[in-house]
Specification:
about 65% helix; two-stranded antiparallel ribbon; iron; 13 helices
Amino acid sequence: MQNVVHQKLLKLLEKLVKSGDSFDLHELLLRFTFDNICVTAFGIDPGCLAFNLPEIPFAKAFEEATELTLRRFIVPPFVWAHLRYFGLGYEKRIKEAIQIVHDFAEKTVMEKQKELCKSVNLNGHSDLLSRLMKIQDSEADRQDNYKFYRDFCVSFILAGRDTSSVALAWFFWLVNKYPEVETRILNEIKDILGHQECKNENPYEHDVVFSEEDLKKMVYLQAALSESLSLYSSVPIDFKEVLEDDVFPDGTFIKKGSRVVYSIFSMARMESI
């Protein structure tokens, strides 16, 4: 993670700032979280943060598959089910995008299996996928769980890419909107950096890495992030499907098969909550 932040994200941001051109911060954060989750979870670098900001086929397909799948929750099932059956419209594009995503995930799993077969221990393999696969007693067990590993890759990217980038985008938008908050965050960080001078020749360089103890001292920054997540949740609306007939604490009866929709965005703005 330190490598992705210091050697890629910060250097790319510095280059963009020096160029004087405007750029889409949310897109940049999406690229950052995509590279970050791939490196952390699978030990591979997709290269989304390269200086030329290349279009990565897998990343594009993943985003398209995610956006188009959302339509299934909006369009009546009998409509999209027929489109899927006949391979028409956006359902055809979903199928193509998902195939690209699965191909990438399967290739990742296959290469990881080959690497682990050659190595006795986990030296050089700190990613989550390697550790998960190493838990299996034998290569046969790993083969049996092939689809599980593929789905693990896809779900981890889904969980770690959009949520983090959206949260960061809203946070920086709010910080920009409230300069007094930005000043307090910077003062808190500078105060912690000031106490690091004995440990670093130049504590204000990009390569400063905060320790766990340093991060615990960033009380105001954590409060600002928490408030930002509360007001602009990465998942502003969600729903659950009822597995069995049930009754809510307030006496509301909910029938099996129903969908309970709740707005996290609205709840964060209700004084009663």
